[in-house]
Structure formats: C-alpha cells, structure tokens
Specification:
Number of strands: 0
Number of helices: 10
Largest sheet: none
Radius of gyration: 21 Å
Shape: elongated
Length: 253
Amino acid sequence: MEEKNASEIIARLDRLPVWSLPATFIAVLGTGFLFTFFDIFDINVSFIQTALTTFGVSSPSSPEIPQLLGPVVLWNLVGYVIGALALTPLADRYGRKRMLMITMAITGLGSLYNAVSPDYLNYLLARTITGIGVGADLAIVNTYINEVSPVNGRAKFTSLVFLFATLGAFLGLWLGLLITTPPAPFPLGLPFALGTTGIFATSGWRIMYGIGSLLALIGLLLRVELPESPRWLASKGRIMEASKIVERMEEAA
C-alpha cells in the first residue's frame, strides 16, 4: 500500500504542467548559485594581491605567484570531488533541503576562513573546504530542481538558475578588479580601481571573501523557506508530508 501511495504522489507530480512552487524559489536557488560562482571566480583577479600582501611575494610578475596558485586551484577542485562523492549521497538519507542548507553553510564558512587566513597553508585549507561545499551544492541543487520541476520544463528551470551563476561570475571578476587591483587604463584595468587606496591596498582580497561569506549567509537564510522534495519524502514513506506539498503545488498550478 505504501509503495502504491508513493507511486501516486510521483504520478501527481508528473502531471503538473507548470512550475508550481512560488516563483521566488527560483531566485532562492539562484542566490545559492550566485554565491557559488562568485566564489569560483573571485580568486582569478584577487590572488595577486593576496600573494603580495600575505604570502611574501615581492612583485606582481614574480614566478612565485603561479607556483602558489597551482596547488590552491588543485585542492579547490579536489574539494569538489570530495564534496560530490561524500556529501551528495547524504541527500538521499537526510533529505534535499537539509543538505542544501549544510552545503551552503560549509561553503560560506570556507569563504569566511579565506577572509581571515593568516598564511598560505590556512588559505589552501580554506579553499579546499569551500570546494567541498561547492561540489556538493552544485549536484544537490540540480537534483532538487529536477524533482520539483514539471517534466517538460526541467532543462528550462535549470537554465534559469544558471543565469544567477553567470551573474556571480561577473560579480566576482569585476569586484576583484575594483577592490584588489591598481588603477589602469581600460581594457588593461579599471581607471577607478581602488586596489591602492586605504584598506583596499592590503585587504581588498579579504573583503572579497567576506562579501562571499555574506552572500552565502543570505542564500542559507533564503533556503529555509524551501519545501522538502516530495519525491524524496515519498521514497522514504513520508506520504502525508509529501501529499501536503503536492496539494499546494496542484493548487498553484
């Protein structure tokens, strides 16, 4: 009987012709992606200042910079793999919503750790932690969207969320140019860049990661409003909970 009820829940979900959750939930998921891609791209411009002010590198053209950057990028990507393999399966056990909040918290804490890193080893560890959260979050967000989207619109709604990802990448790059680089004629730089002014001259890169952790906090708070995936609830035999969510979706549709 329980298996039959679960099948009915899934059938009702599959009959929904349109996105049937509040439209703001697209933005809620998108805010998480905005932070995720902000964090991926913020290192591209800001790392030179990090190396000069914190790692003891003497010149922006020093060959030490790519030597230091290589392991950071590598272990950030290793974190992706660890997060995807170790944390993503936990979404099958503990639920999509709970893990979406945990992965965003891990990513935000990693970014905050980056902001206060006193040396290279701590910075490297912080980027690895951030990568663990990012790798898991990317996979679980896509799973969640596929489970709550209408059958004929899953690609479209996944694409909408990725629009926020491009915004995060844009913000990470251009904010880095603004607050971590010296003024330079466009297109070599920004004439109004602040990278040699006041606190930005030594801590612009820390501010970048601080902004990232703030974006993660906003994404985490917004995700509190997300409902659990009815498909996951049905798979766990929590039929009443799944049915209530599907009823609200049917009314919206």
